[in-house]
Amino acid sequence: MEEEVKSLNFIEHIVEEDLANGYGKQDLRFRFPPEPNGYLHIGHASSICLNFGLGLRYNAPVNLRFDDTNPAKEEKEYVDAIKKDVTWLGYEWDTERYASDYFQQLYDWAVELIKQGKAYVDSQSSEEMAEQKGTPTEAGKESPYRNRSVEENLSLFEGMKNGDFEEGKHVLRAKIDMTSSNMLMRDPIMYRVLHKPHHRTNTDWCIYPMYDWTHGESDYIEQVSHSLCTLEFLPHRELYNWFLDQLVDSKKLRPKQREFARRNLSHTVVSKRKLLQLVESGVVDSWDDPRMPTISGLRRRGYTPESIRNFAETIGIAKRENVVDVSLLEFHVREHLNKIAPRVMAVLNPLKVVITNYEEGKEEWLEAENNPGDESAGSREVPFSRELFIEQEDFREEANRKFFRLKLGGEVRLKNGYIIKAESCTKDVEGNITEVQCTYDPKSKSGSGTEESLRKVKGTLHWVSVPHAIKAEVRLYDRLFSDENPDGHKDKDFMDFVNPDSLEKITGYLEPSMKNAKVGDRFQFQRLGYFNVDTDSTNENLVFNRTVTLRDTWAKLEQKS
Fold first, then answer.
1. In 10 A of CB 482, how many CB atoms?
2. How far apart are CA 470 and CA 346, in angstroms?
3. Which residues contact 88 (CB under 8 A, 6 or more apart)?
4. Would you call 118 a catalytic residue per the annotation?
């Protein structure tokens, strides 16, 4: 039991402490509260895994609550995408909630605060309010409208609700303390006028509550026990508690806000505003472009839910922000795909090989394991013929002793097939090699049990039979940014670090077993990397995305630089 306690993260320690001090397990309830103003990204995945992970650990319900209080930026498209992402990651929410469910209750509570003299309508401009709010070292000044009568405040607030005023004319502010050292406590705005249709309430409301007013009260309505936020909300906790102090019924559970640090990912930006800029500027095609750090982008690229959950568990929950190298995320997808992905052969940079002593028109089918690490994966047959494709880089006319692939006068084994020897090559007028002529050892077939089949050669190459090969579009994705911290340069914009080589589209040649591959299917292209079938794929035109290379090629480049 002692070892189990030591393994808890600090959030779990807080929950355990509350359970020891009077909370019952039936009191526990968590929530994941995204704003539907964009697609979720890898940073949100950590929060999803934290909240839903706590629900699983304590057998407690977890709400999915949409913080939909800004109709200018929120859309149903984002709501649907968020629900799809959470489900895809493997989690089930207890109830689906919306801040907009509580608009009437929040309004009624705001009216009560006005009646108690704890809220007022301010008619200053946003510039005037910013000026009178002071600085971190200088106290703010009271608004000239701070002491309006309750009756006038109620009348103005009702007029705001009824749409009698234009945007920016009035706001409702909490009356707290203009001298507070926490500037968030200096009469924060609770409501503003917005004449924009809402994705759920349409034009029913002309005023919309601010985050700080909405969040804690929504937690209270839902009886959320632990409201977990990222570290930038730590200064908001005082305001969160002040609003609760005005309303909490002693018979009901009082939510606790607690904060954890963001885990920033290298070579990435996760600001929704900046991700939207990438989409709108055409740097990427969409929110689910496989180069994007969005969950939908990772899914389309071929990442698995398990790999993302394992990544979130590895980086853990901390009190300090730090940057996690994206290679750790790539490691987890490699590790998982290595276990589950069927092996197939594909050639992406083809060079034709002709086996001159193999009978013309002959073909045979060779047995190949689908996954050497998983016996239950079974095997398949791949066709072999006189003409094959190998990778251009797997042949050199001349090479040193450390080159273990095909060279003139040298031998290699064709995977699952025969040993071949390069005898000659053909070049075009520019000196480029266009074809290699080889001979093969008919008795060297893999698995045949002959003495020749057991003969060792240092190189083994993947290949595809030319007459049987299937053409496919292959998209070679790389990191979207060349700098590990594109967002961290004062003198440069993050867009300056966009990697111009983040996408290369080529034609690949695949073994015929891939003909019936479906969207989302994942494979290891042997010796090349992990790939999956893209959503753009059709029966007539297969499209594959490279999820990740077999090894971390960036690590080698960074060591050289």
1. 16
2. 9
3. 295, 299, 305
4. no
Q: What are phi and psi of 433, to 5 degrees?
A: -75, 125
pLDDT exceeds 90 at position 554: no
- Catalytic residue, chosen from 148, 272, 334, 405, is 272
More confident residue, 5 or 319: 319
Q: Is the dihedral of CA 210, 216, 219, 221 positive or negative?
A: negative
Which tens digit of pLDDT belongs to each residue from 143-185?
Answer: 999 999 999 999 999 999 999 999 999 999 999 999 999 999 9
Give the alpha-carbon dihedral of 95, 100, 103, 109, to 10 degrees.
50
Structure pTM? 0.92
User: Which residue among 84, 133, 169, 262 is the active-site one?
Assistant: 262
**Angle at 229 (CA atoms; ends 59, 269), nearest 5 degrees:** 115
Decide if 262 is catalytic.
Answer: yes
| From 12, 16, 35, 259, active-site residue | 35
Q: Give the C-alpha separation, 473 to 509, whole Å.
A: 9
Phi and psi for 272 in degrees, rounded to 5?
A: -60, -35
The DSSP call for residue 325 is P
Report the distance separating Cα 17 and Cα 28, nearest Å: 12
